Protein backbone atom coordinates (compact mmCIF):
# COMPACT_ATOMS: atom_id res chain seq x y z
CA UNK A 1 0.00 0.00 0.00
CA UNK A 2 3.03 2.29 0.47
CA UNK A 3 3.57 2.41 -3.28
CA UNK A 4 -0.10 3.26 -3.87
CA UNK A 5 0.09 5.97 -1.21
CA UNK A 6 3.04 7.55 -2.98
CA UNK A 7 1.19 7.41 -6.32
CA UNK A 8 -1.77 9.16 -4.68
CA UNK A 9 0.56 11.85 -3.33
CA UNK A 10 2.21 12.21 -6.73
CA UNK A 11 -1.19 12.65 -8.40
CA UNK A 12 -2.12 15.35 -5.85
CA UNK A 13 1.22 17.10 -6.41
CA UNK A 14 0.72 17.21 -10.16
CA UNK A 15 -2.93 18.29 -9.87
CA UNK A 16 -2.10 21.22 -7.58
CA UNK A 17 0.99 22.15 -9.61
CA UNK A 18 -0.99 22.22 -12.87
CA UNK A 19 -3.69 24.38 -11.25
CA UNK A 20 -1.27 26.84 -9.64
CA UNK A 21 0.98 27.22 -12.70
CA UNK A 22 -2.03 27.67 -15.01
CA UNK A 23 -3.49 30.42 -12.81
CA UNK A 24 -0.14 32.19 -12.43
CA UNK A 25 0.54 31.92 -16.16
CA UNK A 26 -2.54 34.06 -16.81
CA UNK A 27 -0.96 36.88 -14.80
CA UNK A 28 2.45 36.30 -16.45
CA UNK A 29 4.23 34.85 -13.41
CA UNK A 30 7.06 32.41 -14.36
CA UNK A 31 6.23 28.71 -14.13
CA UNK A 32 9.19 27.99 -11.84
CA UNK A 33 7.68 30.27 -9.18
CA UNK A 34 4.39 28.42 -9.60
CA UNK A 35 6.02 25.03 -9.05
CA UNK A 36 7.77 26.27 -5.90
CA UNK A 37 4.49 27.72 -4.58
CA UNK A 38 2.75 24.40 -5.29
CA UNK A 39 5.48 22.66 -3.27
CA UNK A 40 4.88 25.00 -0.33
CA UNK A 41 1.15 24.21 -0.46
CA UNK A 42 1.32 20.40 -0.72
CA UNK A 43 4.41 19.84 1.45
CA UNK A 44 4.53 18.60 5.06
CA UNK A 45 4.74 22.19 6.34
CA UNK A 46 1.82 23.41 4.22
CA UNK A 47 -1.54 21.67 3.73
CA UNK A 48 0.27 18.40 4.36
CA UNK A 49 -0.85 16.23 1.44
CA UNK A 50 2.74 14.94 1.27
CA UNK A 51 4.19 13.81 4.59
CA UNK A 52 7.54 12.41 3.46
CA UNK A 53 9.32 14.31 0.70
CA UNK A 54 12.22 11.85 0.35
CA UNK A 55 10.69 9.97 -2.61
CA UNK A 56 9.82 13.25 -4.32
CA UNK A 57 13.42 14.44 -3.82
CA UNK A 58 14.74 11.29 -5.52
CA UNK A 59 12.58 11.95 -8.60
CA UNK A 60 13.58 15.62 -8.42
CA UNK A 61 17.27 14.64 -8.59
CA UNK A 62 16.50 12.74 -11.79
CA UNK A 63 15.01 15.94 -13.19
CA UNK A 64 18.16 17.92 -12.40
CA UNK A 65 20.30 15.20 -13.99
CA UNK A 66 18.23 15.23 -17.20
CA UNK A 67 18.21 19.05 -17.34
CA UNK A 68 21.99 19.36 -17.01
CA UNK A 69 22.58 16.42 -19.37
CA UNK A 70 20.46 18.03 -22.09
CA UNK A 71 22.23 21.38 -21.68
CA UNK A 72 25.62 19.65 -21.75
CA UNK A 73 24.68 17.81 -24.93
CA UNK A 74 23.95 21.15 -26.61
CA UNK A 75 27.48 22.27 -25.81
CA UNK A 76 30.72 20.96 -27.27
CA UNK A 77 34.25 20.74 -25.92
CA UNK A 78 35.24 23.52 -28.33
CA UNK A 79 32.45 25.74 -27.02
CA UNK A 80 33.48 24.90 -23.47
CA UNK A 81 37.07 25.89 -24.24
CA UNK A 82 35.79 29.27 -25.40
CA UNK A 83 34.23 29.68 -21.96
CA UNK A 84 37.57 29.42 -20.14
CA UNK A 85 37.52 33.09 -19.08
CA UNK A 86 34.02 32.99 -17.53
CA UNK A 87 34.83 29.66 -15.86
CA UNK A 88 38.35 30.32 -14.56
CA UNK A 89 38.46 34.09 -14.06
CA UNK A 90 34.76 34.83 -13.57
CA UNK A 91 34.13 31.81 -11.38
CA UNK A 92 37.19 32.32 -9.18
CA UNK A 93 36.42 36.01 -8.68
CA UNK A 94 32.75 35.41 -7.87
CA UNK A 95 33.31 32.52 -5.45
CA UNK A 96 36.34 34.12 -3.79
CA UNK A 97 34.80 37.58 -3.36
CA UNK A 98 31.48 36.15 -2.10
CA UNK A 99 33.25 34.08 0.56
CA UNK A 100 35.40 37.04 1.66
CA UNK A 101 32.38 39.38 1.83
CA UNK A 102 30.32 36.86 3.83
CA UNK A 103 33.24 36.22 6.18
CA UNK A 104 33.62 39.95 6.84
CA UNK A 105 29.89 40.43 7.47
CA UNK A 106 29.76 37.34 9.69
CA UNK A 107 32.57 38.65 11.88
CA UNK A 108 30.80 42.02 12.02
CA UNK A 109 27.71 40.24 13.42
CA UNK A 110 29.79 38.35 16.03
CA UNK A 111 29.79 34.95 14.31
CA UNK A 112 32.86 32.76 14.75
CA UNK A 113 35.19 32.83 11.76
CA UNK A 114 34.56 29.12 11.15
CA UNK A 115 30.78 29.53 10.92
CA UNK A 116 31.08 32.74 8.88
CA UNK A 117 33.46 31.04 6.44
CA UNK A 118 31.10 28.08 6.07
CA UNK A 119 28.12 30.37 5.39
CA UNK A 120 30.32 31.99 2.74
CA UNK A 121 30.69 28.55 1.13
CA UNK A 122 26.89 28.15 1.10
CA UNK A 123 26.11 31.58 -0.29
CA UNK A 124 28.80 31.44 -2.99
CA UNK A 125 26.92 28.68 -4.84
CA UNK A 126 23.92 29.57 -7.03
CA UNK A 127 21.13 27.33 -8.32
CA UNK A 128 22.33 25.65 -11.50
CA UNK A 129 18.92 24.11 -12.19
CA UNK A 130 16.83 27.26 -11.73
CA UNK A 131 19.20 29.60 -13.58
CA UNK A 132 19.77 27.29 -16.55
CA UNK A 133 16.05 26.54 -16.82
CA UNK A 134 15.37 30.28 -16.86
CA UNK A 135 18.06 31.03 -19.45
CA UNK A 136 17.02 28.12 -21.65
CA UNK A 137 13.34 29.09 -21.62
CA UNK A 138 14.33 32.57 -22.84
CA UNK A 139 16.81 31.25 -25.43
CA UNK A 140 19.70 33.05 -23.70
CA UNK A 141 22.19 30.27 -22.98
CA UNK A 142 24.35 31.47 -25.87
CA UNK A 143 23.84 35.19 -25.22
CA UNK A 144 26.86 37.04 -23.73
CA UNK A 145 25.34 37.14 -20.23
CA UNK A 146 24.32 33.50 -20.63
CA UNK A 147 27.90 32.45 -21.34
CA UNK A 148 29.21 34.37 -18.31
CA UNK A 149 26.48 32.90 -16.10
CA UNK A 150 27.08 29.31 -17.24
CA UNK A 151 30.84 29.68 -16.83
CA UNK A 152 30.46 30.89 -13.24
CA UNK A 153 27.93 28.13 -12.46
CA UNK A 154 30.36 25.46 -13.69
CA UNK A 155 33.13 26.84 -11.47
CA UNK A 156 30.72 26.93 -8.52
CA UNK A 157 29.82 23.27 -8.99
CA UNK A 158 33.51 22.33 -9.11
CA UNK A 159 34.27 24.42 -6.02
CA UNK A 160 31.76 22.42 -3.97
CA UNK A 161 34.27 19.53 -3.82
CA UNK A 162 36.93 21.37 -1.77
CA UNK A 163 34.16 23.01 0.27
CA UNK A 164 32.88 19.59 1.35
CA UNK A 165 36.40 18.51 2.28
CA UNK A 166 36.90 21.71 4.30
CA UNK A 167 33.88 21.13 6.57
CA UNK A 168 35.67 18.63 8.91
CA UNK A 169 38.53 21.13 9.33
CA UNK A 170 36.14 23.98 10.12
CA UNK A 171 34.22 21.88 12.63
CA UNK A 172 37.40 21.13 14.56
CA UNK A 173 37.28 17.40 13.78
CA UNK A 174 40.65 15.73 14.28
CA UNK A 175 41.42 15.12 10.59
CA UNK A 176 44.94 15.48 9.23
CA UNK A 177 45.63 17.83 6.34
CA UNK A 178 47.50 15.04 4.56
CA UNK A 179 44.39 12.85 4.72
CA UNK A 180 42.23 15.60 3.18
CA UNK A 181 44.78 16.24 0.43
CA UNK A 182 44.82 12.51 -0.33
CA UNK A 183 41.00 12.53 -0.53
CA UNK A 184 41.08 15.51 -2.89
CA UNK A 185 43.67 13.88 -5.16
CA UNK A 186 41.60 10.69 -5.15
CA UNK A 187 38.55 12.71 -6.18
CA UNK A 188 40.43 14.34 -9.06
CA UNK A 189 41.75 10.92 -10.18
CA UNK A 190 38.27 9.36 -10.11
CA UNK A 191 36.82 12.28 -12.06
CA UNK A 192 39.53 12.01 -14.74
CA UNK A 193 38.98 8.25 -15.03
CA UNK A 194 35.20 8.69 -15.36
CA UNK A 195 35.57 11.35 -18.06
CA UNK A 196 38.19 9.38 -19.99
CA UNK A 197 36.12 6.19 -19.83
CA UNK A 198 33.00 8.05 -20.91
CA UNK A 199 34.73 9.64 -23.92
CA UNK A 200 36.22 6.31 -25.02
CA UNK A 201 33.25 4.05 -24.35
CA UNK A 202 30.07 6.10 -24.85
CA UNK A 203 30.28 6.84 -28.64
CA UNK A 204 30.89 3.19 -29.68
CA UNK A 205 28.28 2.03 -27.14
CA UNK A 206 25.62 4.36 -28.59
CA UNK A 207 26.64 3.35 -32.12
CA UNK A 208 26.15 -0.32 -31.24
CA UNK A 209 22.70 0.38 -29.72
CA UNK A 210 21.65 2.58 -32.67
CA UNK A 211 22.42 -0.24 -35.10
CA UNK A 212 19.66 -2.35 -33.48
CA UNK A 213 17.12 0.30 -34.63
CA UNK A 214 15.16 -0.26 -31.43
CA UNK A 215 13.94 3.12 -30.18
CA UNK A 216 13.06 1.92 -26.68
CA UNK A 217 16.51 0.37 -26.32
CA UNK A 218 18.14 3.62 -27.45
CA UNK A 219 16.17 5.59 -24.83
CA UNK A 220 17.32 3.21 -22.09
CA UNK A 221 20.90 3.44 -23.33
CA UNK A 222 20.85 7.25 -23.21
CA UNK A 223 19.36 7.17 -19.70
CA UNK A 224 22.10 4.73 -18.68
CA UNK A 225 24.81 7.05 -20.02
CA UNK A 226 23.20 10.08 -18.41
CA UNK A 227 22.46 8.71 -14.94
CA UNK A 228 25.40 6.28 -14.86
CA UNK A 229 28.01 8.91 -15.68
CA UNK A 230 26.46 11.37 -13.22
CA UNK A 231 26.50 8.74 -10.45
CA UNK A 232 30.08 7.68 -11.23
CA UNK A 233 31.21 11.31 -11.15
CA UNK A 234 29.70 11.78 -7.68
CA UNK A 235 32.24 9.28 -6.32
CA UNK A 236 34.83 12.03 -6.84
CA UNK A 237 32.74 14.39 -4.73
CA UNK A 238 31.27 16.53 -7.53
CA UNK A 239 27.54 17.19 -7.68
CA UNK A 240 25.13 15.05 -9.67
CA UNK A 241 24.37 18.15 -11.74
CA UNK A 242 27.99 18.62 -12.81
CA UNK A 243 28.36 14.89 -13.50
CA UNK A 244 25.27 14.98 -15.72
CA UNK A 245 26.59 18.05 -17.56
CA UNK A 246 29.85 16.19 -18.25
CA UNK A 247 27.89 13.21 -19.56
CA UNK A 248 26.06 15.57 -21.90
CA UNK A 249 29.38 16.95 -23.15
CA UNK A 250 30.48 13.42 -24.02
CA UNK A 251 27.29 12.77 -26.02
CA UNK A 252 27.63 16.21 -27.68
CA UNK A 253 30.77 14.97 -29.39
CA UNK A 254 28.96 12.01 -30.95
CA UNK A 255 26.59 11.69 -33.89
CA UNK A 256 23.68 10.88 -31.58
CA UNK A 257 23.32 14.15 -29.66
CA UNK A 258 20.14 15.30 -31.45
CA UNK A 259 18.36 11.96 -31.12
CA UNK A 260 19.37 11.72 -27.46
CA UNK A 261 17.95 15.19 -26.81
CA UNK A 262 14.71 14.41 -28.62
CA UNK A 263 14.17 11.26 -26.55
CA UNK A 264 14.96 12.84 -23.16
CA UNK A 265 13.14 16.18 -23.33
CA UNK A 266 9.67 14.76 -22.45
CA UNK A 267 11.14 13.03 -19.37
CA UNK A 268 13.19 16.11 -18.47
CA UNK A 269 10.29 18.54 -18.27
CA UNK A 270 8.23 16.41 -15.89
CA UNK A 271 11.07 15.45 -13.55
CA UNK A 272 12.55 18.96 -13.48
CA UNK A 273 9.19 20.33 -12.40
CA UNK A 274 9.33 17.97 -9.42
CA UNK A 275 12.68 19.48 -8.44
CA UNK A 276 11.17 22.97 -8.17
CA UNK A 277 8.19 21.54 -6.28
CA UNK A 278 10.54 19.79 -3.82
CA UNK A 279 12.31 23.11 -3.12
CA UNK A 280 8.97 24.61 -2.07
CA UNK A 281 8.33 21.66 0.26
CA UNK A 282 11.44 22.56 2.27
CA UNK A 283 10.08 25.94 3.36
CA UNK A 284 8.63 25.97 6.89
CA UNK A 285 6.00 28.76 6.98
CA UNK A 286 5.83 29.06 10.79
CA UNK A 287 9.63 29.46 11.00
CA UNK A 288 9.39 32.14 8.34
CA UNK A 289 6.68 34.03 10.24
CA UNK A 290 8.35 33.70 13.65
CA UNK A 291 11.69 35.03 12.39
CA UNK A 292 10.49 37.14 9.48
CA UNK A 293 12.62 40.21 10.23
CA UNK A 294 15.85 38.22 10.59
CA UNK A 295 15.16 36.08 7.51
CA UNK A 296 14.34 39.11 5.35
CA UNK A 297 17.54 40.83 6.54
CA UNK A 298 19.57 37.76 5.54
CA UNK A 299 17.70 37.57 2.22
CA UNK A 300 18.38 41.22 1.36
CA UNK A 301 22.03 40.74 2.29
CA UNK A 302 22.28 37.71 -0.01
CA UNK A 303 20.61 39.42 -2.96
CA UNK A 304 22.51 42.72 -2.72
CA UNK A 305 25.83 41.07 -1.86
CA UNK A 306 25.76 38.48 -4.65
CA UNK A 307 24.47 40.98 -7.19
CA UNK A 308 27.30 43.34 -6.29
CA UNK A 309 29.95 40.62 -6.43
CA UNK A 310 28.87 39.28 -9.85
CA UNK A 311 28.50 42.81 -11.22
CA UNK A 312 31.99 43.70 -9.98
CA UNK A 313 33.32 40.45 -11.47
CA UNK A 314 31.95 41.44 -14.87
CA UNK A 315 33.42 44.95 -14.60
CA UNK A 316 36.85 43.53 -13.68
CA UNK A 317 36.62 41.29 -16.74
CA UNK A 318 35.76 44.41 -18.81
CA UNK A 319 32.43 42.99 -19.93
CA UNK A 320 29.51 45.15 -21.14
CA UNK A 321 27.28 46.68 -18.46
CA UNK A 322 24.25 44.85 -19.84
CA UNK A 323 26.06 41.52 -19.47
CA UNK A 324 27.21 42.37 -15.94
CA UNK A 325 23.72 43.34 -14.79
CA UNK A 326 21.87 40.39 -16.36
CA UNK A 327 24.39 37.82 -15.08
CA UNK A 328 24.28 39.42 -11.62
CA UNK A 329 20.48 39.21 -11.53
CA UNK A 330 20.56 35.55 -12.55
CA UNK A 331 23.18 34.57 -9.95
CA UNK A 332 22.00 36.71 -7.02
CA UNK A 333 20.53 33.72 -5.21
CA UNK A 334 21.76 30.63 -3.38
CA UNK A 335 21.54 27.18 -4.94
CA UNK A 336 20.24 23.74 -4.08
CA UNK A 337 23.68 22.39 -3.23
CA UNK A 338 23.75 24.68 -0.19
CA UNK A 339 21.35 22.17 1.44
CA UNK A 340 23.91 19.39 0.94
CA UNK A 341 26.61 21.58 2.49
CA UNK A 342 24.25 22.50 5.34
CA UNK A 343 23.44 18.85 6.12
CA UNK A 344 27.15 17.99 6.23
CA UNK A 345 27.87 20.97 8.49
CA UNK A 346 24.95 20.17 10.80
CA UNK A 347 26.24 16.60 11.11
CA UNK A 348 29.61 18.02 12.17
CA UNK A 349 27.92 20.41 14.67
CA UNK A 350 29.23 23.41 12.75
CA UNK A 351 25.91 24.88 11.61
CA UNK A 352 23.05 24.79 14.14
CA UNK A 353 19.60 26.30 14.75
CA UNK A 354 18.27 28.93 14.96
CA UNK A 355 20.92 30.34 12.59
CA UNK A 356 20.70 27.33 10.25
CA UNK A 357 16.90 27.54 9.97
CA UNK A 358 16.95 31.27 9.28
CA UNK A 359 19.70 31.05 6.64
CA UNK A 360 18.05 28.11 4.86
CA UNK A 361 14.68 29.92 4.82
CA UNK A 362 16.38 32.94 3.22
CA UNK A 363 18.04 30.60 0.71
CA UNK A 364 14.67 29.16 -0.36
CA UNK A 365 13.16 32.64 -0.71
CA UNK A 366 16.11 33.71 -2.86
CA UNK A 367 15.39 30.77 -5.17
CA UNK A 368 11.71 31.79 -5.38
CA UNK A 369 12.73 35.31 -6.43
CA UNK A 370 15.14 34.14 -9.17
CA UNK A 371 12.63 33.63 -12.04
CA UNK A 372 11.32 37.17 -11.49
CA UNK A 373 14.86 38.54 -11.32
CA UNK A 374 15.79 36.91 -14.64
CA UNK A 375 12.62 38.28 -16.28
CA UNK A 376 13.22 41.81 -14.96
CA UNK A 377 16.97 41.89 -15.65
CA UNK A 378 16.74 43.37 -19.21
CA UNK A 379 14.81 46.39 -17.87
CA UNK A 380 17.33 46.97 -15.08
CA UNK A 381 20.20 46.56 -17.55
CA UNK A 382 18.67 49.19 -19.82
CA UNK A 383 18.48 51.63 -16.90
CA UNK A 384 22.02 51.00 -15.71
CA UNK A 385 23.31 51.39 -19.27
CA UNK A 386 22.28 55.06 -19.16
CA UNK A 387 24.73 55.82 -16.33
CA UNK A 388 27.64 57.36 -18.22
CA UNK A 389 30.17 57.07 -15.38
CA UNK A 390 29.85 53.28 -15.51
CA UNK A 391 30.40 53.13 -19.25
CA UNK A 392 33.49 55.28 -18.79
CA UNK A 393 34.90 52.70 -16.38
CA UNK A 394 35.37 50.48 -19.45
CA UNK A 395 37.47 53.21 -21.12
CA UNK A 396 35.98 52.73 -24.59
CA UNK A 397 33.99 54.81 -27.01
CA UNK A 398 30.31 54.97 -26.20
CA UNK A 399 27.44 55.83 -28.53
CA UNK A 400 27.39 59.51 -27.50
CA UNK A 401 30.92 59.83 -28.89
CA UNK A 402 29.52 59.25 -32.37
CA UNK A 403 28.47 62.91 -32.51
CA UNK A 404 31.97 64.07 -31.60
CA UNK A 405 33.50 61.77 -34.20
CA UNK A 406 31.49 63.34 -37.00
CA UNK A 407 28.94 60.53 -37.26
CA UNK A 408 26.15 63.13 -37.06
CA UNK A 409 26.97 64.00 -40.66
CA UNK A 410 26.15 60.48 -41.77
CA UNK A 411 23.04 60.01 -43.88
CA UNK A 412 21.70 56.94 -45.62
CA UNK A 413 24.15 54.86 -43.61
CA UNK A 414 23.77 51.35 -42.20
CA UNK A 415 23.71 50.71 -38.46
CA UNK A 416 25.21 47.31 -37.64
CA UNK A 417 23.99 45.97 -34.30
CA UNK A 418 26.61 43.44 -33.20
CA UNK A 419 30.20 42.82 -34.26
CA UNK A 420 30.56 39.08 -34.17
CA UNK A 421 31.25 36.99 -37.27
CA UNK A 422 28.17 38.20 -39.17
CA UNK A 423 28.73 41.83 -38.18
CA UNK A 424 32.38 41.69 -39.23
CA UNK A 425 31.54 40.20 -42.62
CA UNK A 426 28.80 42.77 -43.19
CA UNK A 427 31.14 45.66 -42.29
CA UNK A 428 33.78 44.35 -44.72
CA UNK A 429 31.21 44.04 -47.52
CA UNK A 430 29.85 47.56 -46.93
CA UNK A 431 33.38 48.98 -46.86
CA UNK A 432 34.16 47.42 -50.25
CA UNK A 433 30.96 48.88 -51.70
CA UNK A 434 31.71 52.33 -50.27
CA UNK A 435 28.50 52.34 -48.22
CA UNK A 436 28.81 54.32 -44.94
CA UNK A 437 28.08 52.45 -41.72
CA UNK A 438 28.43 52.62 -37.95
CA UNK A 439 28.73 49.70 -35.51
CA UNK A 440 27.03 49.36 -32.10
CA UNK A 441 28.37 46.51 -29.94
CA UNK A 442 28.12 45.55 -26.26
CA UNK A 443 31.19 43.31 -26.08
CA UNK A 444 34.12 45.47 -24.96
CA UNK A 445 36.70 43.16 -26.56
CA UNK A 446 34.90 43.27 -29.90
CA UNK A 447 34.73 47.08 -29.73
CA UNK A 448 38.46 47.34 -29.04
CA UNK A 449 39.18 44.92 -31.90
CA UNK A 450 37.01 46.91 -34.29
CA UNK A 451 38.59 50.23 -33.28
CA UNK A 452 42.08 48.79 -33.82
CA UNK A 453 40.95 47.81 -37.33
CA UNK A 454 39.84 51.39 -37.97
CA UNK A 455 36.12 50.64 -37.80
CA UNK A 456 33.53 53.24 -36.64
CA UNK A 457 32.57 51.07 -33.66
CA UNK A 458 31.06 52.19 -30.37
CA UNK A 459 30.17 50.55 -27.08
CA UNK A 460 26.40 50.75 -27.40
CA UNK A 461 23.26 49.07 -26.09
CA UNK A 462 21.18 48.96 -29.26
CA UNK A 463 18.02 48.25 -27.22
CA UNK A 464 18.06 51.92 -26.11
CA UNK A 465 16.29 54.58 -28.22
CA UNK A 466 18.75 57.19 -26.93
CA UNK A 467 21.72 55.12 -28.08
CA UNK A 468 20.15 54.57 -31.51
CA UNK A 469 19.57 58.32 -31.77
CA UNK A 470 23.29 58.92 -31.20
CA UNK A 471 24.04 56.38 -33.94
CA UNK A 472 21.82 58.35 -36.31
CA UNK A 473 18.88 55.96 -36.63
CA UNK A 474 16.55 58.73 -37.86
CA UNK A 475 18.83 59.35 -40.86
CA UNK A 476 19.94 55.76 -41.48
CA UNK A 477 19.15 53.69 -44.55
CA UNK A 478 19.17 50.32 -42.76
CA UNK A 479 19.41 48.87 -39.26
CA UNK A 480 20.85 45.35 -39.29
CA UNK A 481 20.68 43.37 -36.03
CA UNK A 482 23.05 40.38 -35.79
CA UNK A 483 23.27 39.59 -32.06
CA UNK A 484 22.48 36.30 -30.29
CA UNK A 485 20.21 37.49 -27.46
CA UNK A 486 16.53 36.93 -28.50
CA UNK A 487 15.14 39.30 -25.88
CA UNK A 488 17.59 42.04 -26.79
CA UNK A 489 16.78 41.63 -30.49
CA UNK A 490 13.08 42.24 -29.88
CA UNK A 491 13.73 45.28 -27.66
CA UNK A 492 16.16 46.71 -30.24
CA UNK A 493 13.53 46.39 -32.98
CA UNK A 494 10.88 48.08 -30.81
CA UNK A 495 13.25 50.91 -29.81
CA UNK A 496 14.29 51.55 -33.42
CA UNK A 497 10.71 51.50 -34.69
CA UNK A 498 9.59 54.01 -32.04
CA UNK A 499 12.48 56.33 -32.88
CA UNK A 500 12.45 56.01 -36.66
CA UNK A 501 9.10 54.80 -38.07
CA UNK A 502 10.44 54.70 -41.65
CA UNK A 503 13.74 52.94 -40.90
CA UNK A 504 14.20 49.59 -42.67
CA UNK A 505 15.07 46.95 -40.07
CA UNK A 506 16.65 43.61 -40.96
CA UNK A 507 17.11 40.99 -38.25
CA UNK A 508 18.96 37.71 -38.08
CA UNK A 509 17.61 35.23 -35.54
CA UNK A 510 18.26 31.58 -34.81
CA UNK A 511 14.78 30.09 -34.76
CA UNK A 512 11.80 30.16 -37.11
CA UNK A 513 9.50 30.56 -34.08
CA UNK A 514 10.91 34.07 -33.54
CA UNK A 515 9.99 35.37 -37.00
CA UNK A 516 6.33 36.38 -36.43
CA UNK A 517 7.10 37.94 -33.05
CA UNK A 518 9.90 40.10 -34.49
CA UNK A 519 7.78 41.16 -37.47
CA UNK A 520 5.03 42.24 -35.05
CA UNK A 521 7.65 44.17 -33.08
CA UNK A 522 8.46 46.16 -36.22
CA UNK A 523 11.11 44.31 -38.23
CA UNK A 524 10.80 44.54 -42.02
CA UNK A 525 12.85 41.44 -42.78
CA UNK A 526 13.64 38.55 -40.43
CA UNK A 527 16.13 35.90 -41.52
CA UNK A 528 16.00 32.73 -39.43
CA UNK A 529 19.09 30.53 -39.43
CA UNK A 530 16.86 27.44 -39.39
CA UNK A 531 15.06 28.49 -42.59
CA UNK A 532 18.22 29.61 -44.38
CA UNK A 533 20.07 26.40 -43.57
CA UNK A 534 17.07 24.30 -44.64
CA UNK A 535 16.81 26.17 -47.94
CA UNK A 536 20.55 25.75 -48.49
CA UNK A 537 20.25 22.01 -47.90
CA UNK A 538 17.34 21.75 -50.35
CA UNK A 539 19.13 23.77 -53.06
CA UNK A 540 22.34 21.74 -52.69
CA UNK A 541 20.45 18.44 -52.87
CA UNK A 542 18.44 19.53 -55.94
CA UNK A 543 21.60 20.86 -57.59
CA UNK A 544 23.41 17.61 -56.88
CA UNK A 545 20.54 15.47 -58.23
CA UNK A 546 20.27 17.55 -61.43
CA UNK A 547 24.04 17.40 -61.94
CA UNK A 548 24.04 13.61 -61.70
CA UNK A 549 21.08 13.36 -64.11
CA UNK A 550 22.78 15.63 -66.64
CA UNK A 551 26.00 13.65 -66.31
Strand and helix map with partners:
Blueprint: H1 2-26, H2 31-42, H3 54-73, H4 77-82, H5 84-108, H6 113-124, H7 128-137, H8 144-170, H9 177-211, H10 215-234, H11 240-252, H12 257-281, H13 285-290, H14 292-316, H15 321-331, H16 337-347, H17 355-384, H18 388-393, H19 401-404, E1 414-417, H20 421-433, E2 437-441, H21 444-452, E3 457-459, H22 465-470, E4 478-481, H23 486-499, E5 504-509, H24 514-521, E6 525-528, H25 529-550
Parallel strand pairs: 1-2, 1-4, 2-3, 4-5, 5-6
Structure characterization notes:
With 551 residues, this protein is mainly alpha-helical. It is built from 25 helices and 6 strands. It has a 6-stranded parallel β-sheet, sandwiched between helices. Helix 3 packs parallel to helix 11, helix 8 packs across helix 9 and helix 23 runs parallel beside helix 24. The longest helix has 35 residues. The chain is globular, with a radius of gyration of 25 Å. The protein starts with a helix and ends with a helix.
Which properties best describe this structure?
551 residues, mainly alpha, Na+/H+ antiporter like fold, Rossmann fold, 2 domains, 6-stranded parallel beta sheet, 25 helices, 72% helix, 5% strand
Shape, per Cα inertia axes? globular
Note poorly predicted spans: none
Structural class: mainly alpha
Count of the domains: 2
Architecture of the largest domain, CATH level 2?
Up-down Bundle
The average pLDDT value, as a whole number, equals: 81
Q: Strand-residue fraction?
A: under 5%
